[in-house]
């Protein structure tokens, strides 16, 4: 990633935010809000020069809705270096060491400004001081973060937190990160956009009509963006497995026929007092090509049961066929 920060004297687990290969689908309003609310102002070009800086934002919503991908894409497009702050990056068993690590991270960010710091799972690293899980170490870490946030704003460093539970964030932290951007489960229009994106990712083609795509978008209600991506991947995997197993069954049937034919030839030649010759080997079939995905091949997640169903009909009177595999919830 261009302009990535490489912090010094930090734990080896400190991560750099990866750059997405494609624009996240179904979150257009959140992308624009983050771009024009944070990243363009800290770049300070054109009409955004000398604009007041908000200091940071919190992206909140259910798991798998693409909060980290949104930050990653907007930061990469703005060419702003971003570092990711996770629990294993800052927590230390030594007293006072976590605060020093946090201070070093912000110092590096100020040296590389304009820059951004992404705090993943904000409620886990900096729980509210009134929470029952908050220890004295957590409170000391939160106090250090609040101090750093006051200095970071003037140094053109933005801090972005992601959380699944906005209610578990400390009130003081909510005030210092004033932009609260909700990333909810996708609407039917967003699900359609996400579905089209993953069906055609990497130049793939499919045979699902527009009407069938609309139907799938309604049937995927309650799925997150990552859940839809998992459903597409699982459908392609099952399609590949079915094609492979069908090809193996055909090959097995051909082997049985070949053995029977050779046996008959040997019997005839023995009856004619002739020496049997070695039969020619059946030529190896070329590698199979995965066919284009169709509507009946698509597998819908059933979160309440933890199983997945396919539209494929098997036998008369059967609407759906149940597979034993499990689709990860998202």
Strand order of the largest sheet: 1-3-4-5-2-6
The main pleated sheet reads as: 6 strands, mixed
Q: Specify the CATH homologous superfamily of the largest domain.
A: P-loop containing nucleotide triphosphate hydrolases
Q: What portion of residues belong to β-strands?
A: 5-15%
Q: What is the CATH topology classification name of the largest domain? A: Rossmann fold
Q: How many individual helices?
A: 10
Indicate the overall shape. elongated
CATH class of the largest domain: Alpha Beta
Number of domains: 2
Question: What is the residue-averaged pLDDT?
Answer: 78
| Secondary-structure element pattern, one letter each | EHEHEHHEHHEHEHHHEEE
Architecture blueprint of SSEs:
Blueprint: E1 15-16, H1 28-43, E2 56-60, H2 67-78, E3 82-85, H3 87-90, H4 97-111, E4 115-119, H5 122-125, H6 136-154, E5 157-163, H7 171-176, E6 179-182, H8 188-199, H9 210-219, H10 225-271, E7 299-302, E8 307-310, E9 321-323
Parallel strand pairs: 2-5, 2-6, 3-4, 4-5
Antiparallel strand pairs: 1-3, 7-8, 8-9
Protein name: AAA+ ATPase domain-containing protein
Keywords: ATP-binding, Nucleotide-binding
Pfam families: AAA
Structural description of this entry:
One of its GO terms (molecular function) is ATP binding. This is AAA+ ATPase domain-containing protein. Residues 53-187 form the AAA+ ATPase domain. It is built from 10 helices and 9 strands. The chain is elongated. 44% of the residues lie in helices and 12% in strands. A 6-stranded mixed sheet has the order 1-3-4-5-2-6, with helices on both faces. The protein has a 3-stranded antiparallel sheet with strand order 7-8-9, with helices on one face. Helix 4 packs parallel to helix 6 (136-154) and helix 8 (188-199) packs across helix 9 (210-219). The chain folds into 2 domains: 15-182, Rossmann fold, CATH 3.40.50; 188-274 and 286-323, Helicase, Ruva Protein, domain 3 (Orthogonal Bundle). Residues 1-15, 304-308 and 313-330 have low confidence and may be disordered.
């Amino acid at each position: 990633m261009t302009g990535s920060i490489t912090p010094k004297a930090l734990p080896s687990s400190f991560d750099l935010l990866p750059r997405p290969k494609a624009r996240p689908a179904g979150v257009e309003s959140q992308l624009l809000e983050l771009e024009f609310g944070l990243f363009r102002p800290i770049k300070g070009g054109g009409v955004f020069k000398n604009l007041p800086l908000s200091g940071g934002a919190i992206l909140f919503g259910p798991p798998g809705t693409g909060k980290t991908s949104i930050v990653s894409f907007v930061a990469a497009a703005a060419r702003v270096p971003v570092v990711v702050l996770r629990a294993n990056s800052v927590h230390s068993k030594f007293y006072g060491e976590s605060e020093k690590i946090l201070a070093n991270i912000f110092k590096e960010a100020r040296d590389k400004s304009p820059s951004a710091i992404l705090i993943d799972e904000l409620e886990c690293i900096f729980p509210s001081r009134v929470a029952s899980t908050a220890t004295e170490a957590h409170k000391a870490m939160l106090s250090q973060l609040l101090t750093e946030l006051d200095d970071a704003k003037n140094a053109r460093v933005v801090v972005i937190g992601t959380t699944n539970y906005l209610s578990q964030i400390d009130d003081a932290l909510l005030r210092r990160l004033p932009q609260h951007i909700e990333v909810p489960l996708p609407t039917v229009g967003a699900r359609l956009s996400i579905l089209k994106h993953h069906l055609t990712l990497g130049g793939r083609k499919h045979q699902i009509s527009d009407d069938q795509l609309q139907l799938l978008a309604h049937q995927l209600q309650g799925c997150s963006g990552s859940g839809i991506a998992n459903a597409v991947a699982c459908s392609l995997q099952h399609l590949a497995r079915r094609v492979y197993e069908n090809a193996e069954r055909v090959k097995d049937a051909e082997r049985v026929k070949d053995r029977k034919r050779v046996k008959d030839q040997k019997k005839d030649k023995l009856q004619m007092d002739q020496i049997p010759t070695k039969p020619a080997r059946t030529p190896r079939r070329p590698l199979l090509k995965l066919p284009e995905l169709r509507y009946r091949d698509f597998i819908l997640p059933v979160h309440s049961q933890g199983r997945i169903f396919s539209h494929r009909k098997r036998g008369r009177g059967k609407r759906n066929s149940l597979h034993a595999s499990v689709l990860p919830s998202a």
